[in-house]
Amino acid sequence: MISTSDVSLRFGGRKLFDEVNVKFTPGNCYGLIGANGAGKTTFLKILAKEIEPNTGEVHLASNLRLSVLKQDHYAFDEAKVLDTVLMGNARLFKVAHEKEQLYADPDFGEKDGERASQLEMEYAELNGWESESEAASMLAGLGIDEDLHHKLMKDLESGDKVKVLLAQALFGQPDVLLLDEPTNHLDIYAIQWLENFLDSFKNTVVVVSHDRHFLNRVCTHMADIDYAKIKTYTGNYDFWREASALHQRLLSDQNKKSADKAEELKSFIQRFSANASKSRQASSRRKQLEKLEFADMPLSSRKQPFVGFEPKREAGNDILTVNGLNKSLNGELLLKDVSFTMLKGDKIVLLGRNDMAKSLLLDILAGDEQPDSGQVRWGITTTRSYFPKDNAQYFTTDLPNLIDWLRQYSEDKDETFVRGFLGKMLFSRDEALKRPSVLSGGERVRCMLSKLMLSGANVLMLDGPTNHLDLESISAVNEGIQRFKGNVVFTSHDHEFVQTVANRVLELDSDGRIKDDQQCTYDEYLSLQ
Q1: What is the secondary structure of 394-445 as a DSSP string?
Q2: Cβ of 199: how many Cβ atoms within 10 Å?
Q3: Residue 300, class by beta-carbon neighbours within 10 Å (0-12 exposed, 13-18 middle, 19+ buried)?
Q4: Residue 328 forms beta bridges with which residues?
Q5: What are the pLDDT digits (tens) for 214-224?
Q6: DSSP-derived secondary structure letter, 64
Q7: I want to staple 265 with a disulfide (CB 3.0 to 4.6 A). Which of 125, 146, 270, 289 is the partner?
């Protein structure tokens, strides 16, 4: 078990945590949730004792091993991939290293033999003989091929480095596992493997994630950060969300009944307080009024933007035809003979292990890249808008504020209109005066979504539209795309988003060809595999 007692932390003048007392018990997986900026990552660092709170303590028994998903992708550059995973159990790795050094010593003596015997016993107790096969199995499950296991970390792609660091955190059955956004940069296949791993994990897990399906799949409890406090709830994310909404409705209904009763009593008192024959009844009504109770309606720091896409015109039946598309990048063939037709009403998810290939296909469809060969033909009634994964180019500008930034994409240039639109996306008052060049990743995404909404397009191309967003914003985007009456082609690693939006699945294989094309939902597609 890991717990905190009276933990408080301030950054500058801001109170991030105020006397937090919380316990995370063995056998449970806790989803740590809260609005962007609530302090989820900071709290994990407090639990890991990487940050010292202003007051209070973190309690973890000295015999328990805590493991943390590392965020420094360059810390192990000179280590082999397999060794990096084994380093997840620092004691085991140290014992193995000392053992190897002893046996390699040409002057190996009696004392060395005694020490080696002790190390062999400890190595066996730590499950050392199975450690390499366990580490290799983890790497394979996360999509790291065996031919990479003995390469140096610096020779891996950044996405593969993330997978290795995740395997390092999971390795050796730690007693407490702290995971900050473990599904970031993972493809859907690796996320499924991680879900299965955590399902069978017997110890304590505290995880931060913006993937709702993942939280529902692995979490037994939710730990909600709101207004500097943390409160735990039994159940997964959907249960917490529904229970919270029900609780708010019950409080609201209770207050409405009390308010209606109060109005009735006040009316009686006002009418009959001067009437001598009714004075006793009026006095009784005053006492009833004083005894009426109104439930406190707890505020929340969470805010949900409004996301809605309205096509200015309806597209005809001719939407998109792609024929024999080929494209190489830096000498590597990423798309090979890609051909498909988009039908009216299609909402297509692009699947495949190679994110670069999927992004490249969307770039070509949007006209930002040209194919080496093949054709892309859009119907004459289609109007298109693109949300690229890399949106930095849109914010490299000298424009002084977001009002002027969004105004350039709006037919209505009136400041009141533009400010109103920004307000829907949580840029209110002074927030709308931020310089575009200083925005965070999540703020950029909200701006790009505003741009898309103003476009009035009847075809949306979306490359990872929920990246960098908090859970409330992801839900808003999800609902907005579900309501959209036009066509969509998109990528996402968010299971629930894919399942609830896509009605067609198009999967690319490792060679860049279309492996499968099915008119079905994502879950139906998985059941066919």
Answers
A1: GG-S--SSHHHHHHTT-S---HHHHHHHHHHTT--GGGGGS-GGG--HHHHH
A2: 10
A3: middle
A4: 333
A5: 999 999 999 99
A6: -
A7: 289
Out of 230-244, 249-263, 298-312, the most confident range is: 230-244
| CA 525 vs CA 361, 428, 500, 515, 521: distances in Å | 21, 41, 13, 13, 6
Query: Order of strands across the sheet with 459-463?
Result: 384-387, 459-463, 487-491, 347-351, 504-508, 514-518
Residue in the structure block whose two tokens are 């229970």: 243
Distances (CA, A) of 349 to 60, 213, 375, 437, 457: 44, 17, 20, 31, 18
Whether domain 320-528 has CATH 3.40.50.300: the reply is yes
Residues 6+ apart with CB under 8 A from 454: 406, 409, 410, 411, 421
Q: What are the tens digits of pLDDT across the range 390-437?
A: 999 999 999 999 999 999 999 999 999 999 889 989 998 889 999 999
Phi-psi region of 446 (alpha: psi -120 to 50; beta: other; left: phi over 0): alpha
C-alpha span between 44 and 406 (Å, rounded): 36
Mean of all residue pLDDT scores within the chain: 89
How many C-beta atoms surround the C-beta of residue 200 within 10 A? 6
Which is higher by pLDDT, 187 or 212? 212
Give CA 45 to chain center in angstroms. Answer: 18
What is the distance between the alpha carbons of residues 383 and 242, in angstroms, rounded to a whole number? 38
Q: Is the pLDDT of residue 282 over 70?
A: no
DSSP 267-311: HHHHHHTT-GGGHHHHHHHHHHHHH---------S----------
Q: What one-character-per-residue DSSP string does 246-261 give?
A: HHHHHHHHHHHHHHHH
Q: Which of 4-8, 349-353, 424-428 has the lowest mean pLDDT?
A: 424-428
Asked if 54 and 42 count as a contact pair (C-beta separation under 8 A), the reply is no
d(CA 444, CA 439): 6
Q: What is the DSSP string of 208-233?
A: E-S-HHHHHHH-SEEEEEETTEEEEE
Closest CA to 24 of 42, 41, 48: 48
Question: What pLDDT score does 450 carry?
Answer: 94
What CATH homologous superfamily does 2-239 map to?
A: P-loop containing nucleotide triphosphate hydrolases (3.40.50.300)
Q: Which two tokens stand for residue 12?
A: 């500058």
* pLDDT reading at 261 higher than 90: no
The identity of residue 266, as a single letter, is K
Whole-angstrom distance, CA of residue 461 vs CA of residue 323 = 18
Q: Whole-angstrom Cα distance, residue 281 to residue 477?
A: 56
